[in-house]
Amino acid sequence: MNDYVLNLKKQIPVEKVIIFGSYAKKGTAHKYSNVHIAVFSDYFKGMSRVDSIYFLLINAVDYDIDLEPQGFTMEEYNESAGLVSEIIKTGVELM
Question: What angle do CA 49, 6, 51 make, to 5 degrees?
Answer without folding.
Answer: 15
